[in-house]
Amino acid sequence: MLCKQPKTLAHEAQLAQRANEIGLSASVLSASQVASLEPELTLDVCGGVHFHDDGHLNPSLVMQELARDLDVRHETEVKSFERRGDRVVSVNIGNERIEADEFVIATGSWSGDVAKQLGVELPMQAGKGYSMTLQSPPQLPRTSCLLVEARVAMTPMGSTLRFAGTMEIGGVDDTINPKRVQGIQESIPRYLPAFSKTFAGANTQAQPIWTGRRPVSPDGLPYVGRFAHLDNVISASGHAMLGLSLGPATGMLVRNILANKRQPFDIALLKPDRFA
Ligand SMILES: Cc1cc2nc3c(=O)[nH]c(=O)nc-3n(C[C@H](O)[C@H](O)[C@H](O)COP(=O)(O)OP(=O)(O)OC[C@H]3O[C@@H](n4cnc5c(N)ncnc54)[C@H](O)[C@@H]3O)c2cc1C
Fold first, then answer.
1. How far is the CA of 85 from the centre of ligand 1 (A)?
2. Pocket of ligand 1 contains residue 217 by CB under 6 Å
3. What distance in angstroms lies between residue 2's CA and the mean position of ligand 1's atoms?
4. 222 lines ligand 1 (CB under 6 A)
5. Under CATH, which number does the domain 59-124+219-270 receive?
6. DSSP string, 128-174
7. By mean pLDDT, which of 13-17, 69-73, 231-235 is the weakest?
């Protein structure tokens, strides 16, 4: 966490203290301590917080590896479900019907619409964000950092550097709001002066902009568990800003449900029917 303002650093230090109390490892750093952790960066910050257990990854590569041994149907939409009483027996993908013993709804921001087809409520909003990846960044950090006041994440991926940010709550749409993108781009040189020309003038539009949607529930908690009135449907959705980070834990919870195993903690708070 990189902070420009002492007030923000003080707030982040409080969060670090709480994190340490619950077993995470976080240290509050001065500007010179941050600089020694990131010697390749020229930084204009007053300090930061280092979460020692945090990591970073390339989402595309992770997904490719995870999908390697699975039967993945790309560009295939589940159009409807076939039910027999409280059980779902198959999904219809247009020209084919796929039967299964168990079904997991993991359709992100679209999960509310998918659940509706089963007659169940799963309130969900899409929280749109943008990212841009520099192929030849002027400097490359060693680890991922959050530019705290700007709410922008910076992640090295090999020799490239990705910046991501903004949260626009709304429907599922792919339009790009140039003002929001500009907001991200303008905030970066305030922390990293070496990037002052990267997004300036003509360069502003030079980076292809990616947009994605975070699946956001009303209370910010994901929906993980079985639906009360459906015997063989599980929700694994609504992870908002942390879907990649929480994916492995969610996978473990879903596996435990399927195997009738005891969960490592009470997942009642995550019940998918909690707003029904
Ligand atoms: C800019 C940005 C930065 C982010 N940074 C981070 C980060 O640093 N760390 C982190 O942990 N998370 C991050 N996230 C959040 C993370 O991307 C999401 O939480 C995560 O993608 C949610 O995963 P999901 O599988 O639930 O949904 P999605 O990734 O949205 O996947 C849902 C899939 O379901 C498919 N689908 C929808 N309807 C149907 C249907 N009827 N039939 C078949 N398929 C369907 C969709 O096409 C989609 O492929 C970020 C998000 C954004 C936008």
1. 31
2. no
3. 26
4. no
5. 3.50.50.60
6. EEEEEEESS-SS--SS-EEETTTTEEEEEETTEEEEEEEEEEESS--
7. 69-73
Banded model confidence at residue 270, pLDDT cuts 50, 70, 90: very high
Q: 214 CA to middle of ligand 1, Å? A: 6
CB 235 within 8 A of CB 105: yes
> How far is 187 from 208, CA to CA, in rounded Å?
18
Residue 242 DSSP class: G
CATH 3.50.50.60 domain locations along the chain: 59-124+219-270
Distance 212 CA to ligand 1 centre (A): 7
Nearest-CA residue for atom 25 of ligand 1: 108
Whether residue 219 contacts residue 234, with contact meaning beta carbons closer than 8 Å, is answered with no
Chain-wide mean pLDDT for the chain? 94
Residue 229 pLDDT level (bands cut at 50, 70, 90): very high
- For 151, residues 6+ apart whose C-beta sits below 8 A from its C-beta are 165, 166, 167
Measuring from atom 16 of ligand 1, which residue has the nearest CA? 243
Confidence check: pLDDT of 238 > 90: yes
ipTM passes above 0.90 = yes
